[in-house]
Structure formats: structure tokens, C-alpha cells
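Box 3.1 A note on notation
Throughout this textbook, protein chains are presented in two layers. The first layer is the amino acid sequence; the second is a C-alpha cell string describing backbone geometry. Keep the layers aligned when reading.
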Amino acid sequence: MRILLTRPAGDAQRTAAALRARGHEAIVAPLLDIEIIADAELGAGPWSAVLVTSANAVRAIGDHRQRGALQQTPVFTVGDRTAQAMRDVGFSDVTSAGGSVSDLAKLVAARFKPPARLLYLAGEQRSGDLAGVLRAQNFVVQTALVYRAVVLETLPKLAGDALSTGLDAVLHFSRRSAEAYVNAARNAGLFNAALVGPAHFCLSDRVAEPLRHANAANIQIAARPDEAALIALCG
């Protein structure tokens, strides 16, 4: 299959290698660029736990001046890959929810009692409302913005060329990247080719929402919200 990847470059290259190992042609054309917020304000601890929902937050905390002060704090992540990334930057007490933001909220609520103080290392745009769910249960949550996504307004030439010459599928890892794909395709004058031509393999139902609203023809959802399950859709 010819498969388009629009996620940020570092993640896209890793996914492309996995696809190529399975015999697919992977085309990397990022629509999002991740900007780390240097010396982001984390607030005053101590914290009962640190919450992480993206490997982008790991990049931010890895170089942050307060990393050392946080390294003895338990960390809870949304998935296994992010958990391993936190271990790689020196955090030893790391637990993965192995699923979605909802799974992470349930895990934290099961491990701690309100009003435990939680530090959420977050992006400027977020999928789901982890902080809101936990605050509703009387936890104290400090949301620290440690990275943001900069979105391209139109499709990169490589993506446009791939759509023009025939594309089997597009992999969508986040709602934000799916929204960016729809908008960029519209601005490039390739809306129909981008939405009707290829299959759209999505990490979750929430990720698929912008594609459904745009009337994409073929949407498939991964059995689990992780990269391996998404790649499995490609065969």
C-alpha cells in the first residue's frame, strides 16, 4: 500500500520505518510541527504525580530546568511508548494506562485520593479533558503548557503529488492532525481527492470526527488506541 503520514516529522519517520518493514510505501509529509515551550512554568509542588499524554511533553520535560526536582515523583502516562520515553529521560517510577485519556483518568483516580495534587504536562491543544475529569473528582490539577503544535495551512508538495498519483491510505494519529489534513486539502484544491480517494485509518473515533464531518468515504478505526493497532489496519 501507498500510505501517507502527516504527523510531526520525528514520529512520522518512526512510523514510516515500521510500515516499510511490512512492505508498504510510506510517504512522510508532516502537517504539524511541534514547538517546545522553553522554561515553561510548571507551578509550585510538591506533586503526588505527574501526568503525561504525549511523547512531545517528554521532549519538553527532558530539557526543563525542573526535571531533576520531578524525577522522584510518580509518573502516569496514557500509553506504553510515552511511558518508555519518560524512563529514557531519567524517570524511574512510571506507570502506563495502556489506552486512552479516559483510561489514564480512571487509573489516576484508582491510585490516589482527592485532593491529591497532580501536575499535567500538556500541549496547547489537547484531545479530551483530562484535567477537567479529574478536577470534577476533587483532585487539584496544575496544567502546564510545555509544547504547542504549529499547523501548515496547505498540503506539502509531497502529499499533493501522492494524492495526484494515487494513494491507498492516510494514517491519522490525532484529532488535530485530522483537522489539519482536511483544512490543508481544501486549501490546496484537493479536497475530493484527499477525502474520497484513500482510506482513512484512525487511532480512535474522536480522531475520526473531522473526517466524518468532511464526508470522507472510507474511515476505519484501530482496535486499540495505539500505533501497532493502527499499523495493523494496513495489513
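Residues 6 and 29 are 5 Å apart (CA to CA). The chain has two domains: 2-31+152-232, 35-148.
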